Input
Amino acid sequence: MRRATRAGGAPQRYSAASLFRHGLTHEDWERVWRTVEMRRSYDAVVIGAGVHGLATAYYLASNHGMGNVAVVDKGYVGGGGSGRNTAIIRSNYLTPEGVRFYDRSTRLYENLSATLNFNVMFARRGHLTLAHTDASVRTMRWRAEVNKLEGVESEVIGPDEVKELVPFMDTSTKTRYPILGALYHPPGGIIRHDAVNWGYARAADSLGVEIHQGTEVTGISTDRGRVTGVTTSRGAISAPVVVNCTAGWASLVATMAGVRLPIITHPLQAAVTEPVKMFLHAVVVSGSLHVYVSQTDRGELVFGASTDPYASYSMRGSLEFTEELATHVLELMPSISKMRVLRQWAGLCDITPDFSPIMGVTPVDGFLVDVGWGTYGFKAGPAAGEAMAELVATGKTPESIAAFDLARFEEARLVGERGAAAVGH
Amino acid sequence: MSTAKRLLSGRPTKMRITSRPGEVIDRSKPVRFTWNGREKSAFEGDTIISALAASGERVFSRSFKYHRPRGILTATFHDPGCSVQVGDEPNVRGSHRLVTAGMKVTAQNVWPSLKLDVASANRAAGRFIGAGFYYKTFIKPERLWPTYEKVLQRFAPGGRVSADSPHGSYDKRYAHPDVVVAGGGPAGMAAALGAAEAGARVMLVEEEHSLGGHLRYGSETELAALAELRREVEASGAIEVLVNSAVTGRYDGNWIAILQRNLPHVTERLVKARAKVVVAAPGLIERPYVFEGNDLPGVMLSTAARRLLNLWAVAPGTRAVVLSANEEGDATAADLSDAGVHVAQVVDARRGEQVVRARGAGSLSEVELGDGSKVSCDLLVTAVGWTAPTLLLNVAGDRPVYDERAARFVPGDGLPANVLATGGIVGDGPTAALVEHGRATGRAAAERALARDGTSVTIPSLSPAPHPALYRSRTHGIVDFSEDISSKDLVSAAREGYDSVELLKRYTTATMGPAQGKLETINTVAVLAEATGRSIAETGTTVWRPPHVPVSLGALAGRVLEPVRYSPMQPWHEAHRATPIVAGQWIRPEHYGDPAREVRTVREHVGLIDVTPLGKLDLRGPDVPKLLNFLYVNKWLKLDIGSVRYGLMCGEDGVVLDDGVTGHLGEDHYLMSTTSSGADAVAHWIENWLQTTFPDWQVYMTPMTTAYASINVAGPKSRELMSRVVSDVDLSPEAFAYMQVRRGTICSVPGCVMWRIGFTGELSYELHVPAGYGLYVWESLLAAGEDLSAGVFGLEAQRIMRLEKGHLIVSQDTDGLTQGYGVGLDGLIKLDKEDFAGKQELEWQLERQGYNHLVALLPDDASVVPPEASQIVTGDRSIVGRVTSSRLSPSLGRSICLALVAPQLAETGKSVTVHLPDGTDVRAKVSEELAQFDPGGERLRA
Output
């Protein structure tokens, strides 16, 4: 049996050929990432082993040669929002800055399977944002125009074309919320979120990054305004840079460093049905009906909605959520009433006053944040990780994230994606 | 005739045996249905699978990945291989759903076909496609992934939905029982009785088609005990029994969701019960044993064999091997013998005897035992232990703990006071002990529900009996039958590093299928524990999540009750062929055929528009001026009675929130109007301020939007028209000037509010009439204005006219980033006010500059109307603005636009490039005024 003990060595390649060889020999696969003793000091500590934390660590090692990095998480890899979201990828945002940022992320996602040598199953099924009022048709057209000028494929289509893409959709005018059109974004789609997390973790590990699961950060040490490390449930670590990538818990973790974040955590619920044979190829979003739905390769429908209206750290599902969800889904596709909800769950969203993330430096030197992603953090993971890695390595805030700094809340420079980011998925 | 002989005789119901004492079928009522197009017979009371099994069928589906044949495993709702398609309904639980006459049942996972055995090919391929194989291949070239994906999709399990299925009949019910008992086995029935005896109103919910739990397929003593319990439950007037119903979840505040499936004419009903106390009595689920060949048709649980035998009088096989680790296994062997099935061997696990593997082509033919001996058989029954389905307890905050002695997870001690548990989930014992525990628990539940002392109730102890820890034989076999995950897959994934139960679950998808871990979780945990050298207790278990059984979207949605708002004038609009437009909650006329003609009617004569959706808030109290002064950016402390004023509202972020006029009707009495779409938001906004920041202000707000029907009468002849229907208000321009409000009588209807404002740019009166008189006033106005060429106009004509006047529409000409300055109303904003919503942000906006400006644009080619949302670009295609509104103006005979543009473009005469959605560019000039029509406003002041 081969037990991996590599540190920074080339990882075992995954391919059809290696699958075949393992099938013949029944040799164990190398461990996807190592389990090693935690050391007392690293060049950087990333808190949170979700897509943002893992991507940050991966790009630190791959783009900047900084492999002496620990990613610590109180749970397991991808156990938070990164493993609970509805895994929709798109770049059809409203502001040119937003479009560019998410376009970068989408492009990284497109090549991620090859980059990480891990199939993340990005399926560009096409993404439809339905418009039920003339006001939303106008907003869709606005987004389409901005997208096209930024080189992102996006167009407004009519009810007939919607029907062609989604034959189950009720596009008649007799419904309560008639479908007047949709923003069609062909490059949008769905991805296997767990695979993204594991792929980043494995690739980062192979470049020397250490991933410590079950390691809860209990304190952040500072000295004269500079971060010096973290204390964890498994001992203290010293590090000149600490990056907070803890999403729903971001404001609690930041408080440990004495940094207050303007973040309120809301639960966001999701549900999945039993599988049926493929009938819904596109990802369908309705802002007016507060629902988004896609069908996985396994045949399940995955649903999400808007965040719960109250602030909470609870990850229990509510009955009202599934009731409203079902009502709205059947408004769109009345013929699937016999499909059954199999499971529901909730994740936590860290929401800022302007529905935009907070990325970059804080008043504590060396304590960096990549938080406030609210309901749309997963799709931003790669681009955010890349930018955060650049910031950690160079000490300079990259242009692409400059607008998302923490200081904007004191200097009245709010950024807005409210029209596109806060509602749609 | 022995079963074996009858089997050979080839009769259609060849596995049906002679009458059993507890059978639930009615042999006097035959039912015919079809299976994959072939006619089959059944008796009333048969499930789809019991009927098919009676006719000799053994294979009901193919497994998800390897497409191995799947037969009966549990003969319950959760039977993983027995999901079938019934008509247009996918994933029907065939071991639960009763056969009805004419039912069309088809197998759903049959690729390549139900009969064709591709097991050998699959076994060969299986070694290359272990759990998670897809993460390791199809990586390059990436352009081929969509093709691979389509292949994977073909393997997707499940039935089919069809786009023309009717919605079906679903319903909801609210209930307020004192006690809900989840589970109608002996303990559950006794709990319901105990609670009812103590004075509680009880709802007893049972998943199966009749009460009784395991007693139903038990011994004669057990059947006798069941008959007695049933008699008592029926005799009690305080127990409502819901059978074929399932408690699907418990939510905060003991909000219990129950899926009821036993109603005539209603497919499913969601019962939502606010229970004072809930008693969980779900019993135990028998767990499968893991060994090579454990998924062959013919290998089943002891409870499955007993259910087939004793409920439906179906022989589960002809020659059996029984692997028994407990009394239930022994009882099954006895039942099989009694029913004429030859028991070739009982393998007693308590004596260390083992089943190592099962073999067979397509279905079971031989079992290999621990000593190497082989026994030929077509039935292998396993009785290796139990799982406690603790969902209800988990969602109430309890964490199950592993009991080494009993070899199962048992409830922890984290239950809240309003959740109790009884029966098998708590412990084991003879029927009498379960009943005694149930009855006492029910009494305790009633005591708590009725807020009595409750100290008199002593609940006897009931603890799990010792049981050998049997999870896996020395061979590998299937752990998750729905997902086709073997113990070998789990071991391999754990060694690869997916070695916590959550990671393992996600990587292999074990426990993620339709049974949601009820059969699979414990074996997954046991195999993981074995692979990692940890104990089961250290390994822990996954979290059970609701719902307990899948719930249809139809039941969750219930009846379709989406509210629509129509104005009282809707009958007139419909009669006059108005084209409807959905505007939020409202549906209103967009136009009546020709918007341009409607514009001319208003500009030349007089027109009526139904503006009922306008938000209307009645504000009373001495502090209303302070409130208005805080909400709006302009000043409101001085507004004479009889006057109205236009106001702009901004959010705390300085972003334009709403606009409208507010009139001072009388002492301490104001009427505020809001935009149609903003009515609710503004009401919430006001309520929020009053409750959180200004609780001491004396202001009473009443939303009046639907209490008034609102009509705007606009056009040069509107005063003439008004004078014919208003008797008690002096309408002369001197007495009732622009921006004033009067109360009076219109068409003999008293209590109307009318104000002179002018969104269309014409002399106009906005009338707010008690809603019940809306249609009457509307029709009377039209009749009175007939000789004035009075007509009607819709939303579209209004939009054209307001655009000609350069009046902005909030959220069309502004967006989520548009702050107060720059929208043409800068003069309105009074930063010298002490405080108002958004003041700080507006100060910063002014300081910072650089914000976009709302301007009027006139395309150089007057015939080109740039579609709304066309972007304004620079030479290098950077975006510097966008067209927010555009129309062909009938009054001016040319195209006009409003646009939000970067500050450097907001200069009169500036020429800009407008990029149209079709990809072409046009030029347009910034106009001096926002208004293109009557910029001086002489017409509306007439």
In short: Chain A has two domains: 42-118+189-260+365-425, 119-188+264-351. Chain A has eleven helices and 19 strands. Chain A touches chain B through 101 residues (CB under 8 Å). The longest strand of chain A covers residues 340-351.
